[in-house]
Amino acid sequence: MMKQPSRKTTILYGQLSILFISLVTAFIPQYYTYVFILYFIVIMFFMFRTTRKMSKMPPQKELGASLFKENAAVKIAMTDKLLTAELKKQFTASMSMLMLTFLVFILFPLYRSYVYEPMHEFLSSIISSPIVVNFLDFFIMYEVIFGILTVLRIVIMNKMSQYNIMLPQKFVVYRKGIISNDRFFIEFSKDLCYTYDLKRHFVELRSRSNKSFRVRLYTNSTSELVNKMKEIGVDPCEEKI
Q1: Which strand ranges, in their side-by-side order, compose the sheet holding 184-187?
Q2: Is the CB of residue 107 less than 8 Å from the CB of residue 145?
Q3: Other CB atoms within 10 A of residue 46 CB
Q4: Backbone angles phi, psi at 118, to 5 degrees
Q5: What's the whole-model pTM score?
Q6: Residue 64 pLDDT level (bands cut at 50, 70, 90)
Q7: Does residue 75 register a pLDDT over 90?
């Protein structure tokens, strides 16, 4: 299955990043720009590698013969009148996540204007080492902003999980998993379950551990696809649509 980092892993990476950037800002500020650019390049490299792993497909000999194929999923999806409302909510949630990026440019100036100096004076009054105070000035600033953004992100993600639907334009079902749009492989695992709607002509794969993972497979042969899921051994979801 196309896995995303867990919430705990994301927060851990964030904390390590804050510690690293705070140390650089406090002790070698003259190299801050260069270190930040290098850090950004490294992060992008790992994201690129993760994306490649997500899209890597098994060899055809491992997949075996196809069990079900749908080449007109997007056309069938267009006949689902309720889908438009779902996609509008998904777009709104996605735009809210995008706005968090711009919020950074507001939070930093606000913190520097109203919180930085009082916090610096407070730290200086209880800590005698200017170096430690300098480090804590930046560390606390990054922590506060990271905390605000994390809370907002969690709130948005919880709402977004209801509407975050992946819609393959076409797909092929194998016993090992599904190939979507000839690019992405979704492996069948114990974490996956399925639900379906015969009237709306789709079978939807969901993750038990990641509520934002939803792959909706539109087809006019919904009953046949449901039977294939049962044959493969994918369990039905306990929750209803």
Answers
A1: 68-70, 171-173, 177-180, 184-187
A2: yes
A3: 10
A4: -60, -40
A5: 0.69
A6: confident
A7: yes
